[in-house]
Structure formats: structure tokens, C-alpha cells
Amino acid sequence: MATSQSTTFLTRLENKIPPPVIMIICALGVWFTAETISLTLFATDGSWHWSATLAVIIFACGVVIDLISLKRFFAAKTTINPLKPQQASSLVTSGIYRFTRNPMYLGLMLWLVALATYLNNPLAFIWPIIFVVYINRFQITPEERFLKTLFGEPYLAYLQNTPRWLLLN
Questions:
Q1: Which residues pair with 165 in a beta bridge?
Q2: C-alpha 63: how far from its chain's center?
Q3: Fewer CB within 10 Å: N-end or C-end of the chain?
């Protein structure tokens, strides 16, 4: 009985919270972790910080990935609303979508990695991992169910040939 109730509760969380909100919650976790647990990843000499430079590069990569992804969806005239995957009007598999099925989520995850890098705390990197786990379970998996039904065989082929997160399927 408890398993059924917990499964029902977890299912109710699917496609309910916009991924940018999850990213903001995780960003707060990154910040809180860095503020409460004093550890450093990169040694600093007080003048130039590797962490800040690297963070800017990582953040910029995330922004570029998100913008390229959005441009592809706008060009295909399909929805960008992650809470309503059933409203997708076309399957986007070209451009950046040849390398990852979820570049918008990848971009958000890179923003979290950039923040953890900037704050220079190794424990803060747990939050990008939490983001990926949450997004996989409560966003991507339900999206994939809808898209399999909506697009059928072309989507199944896409699933076989393109990883969820660059290197991870």
C-alpha cells in the first residue's frame, strides 16, 4: 500500500514544476552549501581567481546552448513549454539536437556548474547532480512518454541515436 501511494505521489510531481524553477532552487542550494560549509576547490591568491574565469566560460557555454536550442524550437514552430509536451507540433532532431536530446536542460545544468565553480566549493557540485536526477525523473521521462506516443517510430529512432545529456543516455 505504501509503495502504491508513494508511486502515485511521485507521478503527481511529473511535469509540474518548470525546469527553470528547479534550477533556481538548486542554485539556492549551491549558494547555501557554499555559504555554510567552508571548503575551496581552487587555491586563490587574492588577485586572480581561476574559479571566476572558469565559471564565466561555463556559464557562457550554457547560455549559448540554451539560445541555440530555443532558436531550433522557434524555427520548427513547436512549443517550448516543458510542462505541456503533448503540445509539441514537430520533432526537432537537427542542429544541437543531434548531440543531445535535452540541450535546454543541459544549458541550465551548466549554469549550476558555473555557479558552483564561481563559489569555489566542491560540495556545491552536488546540486547540479540533484538537478540532473530530478529533471531525468520528473521532466524528461514523462516528456519521452508523450513524445513516443506523439511521434512514434521517428522518435524511437531518435532515442536510440542521441543521448539525453551529451554523453549520458
A1: 168
A2: 12
A3: N
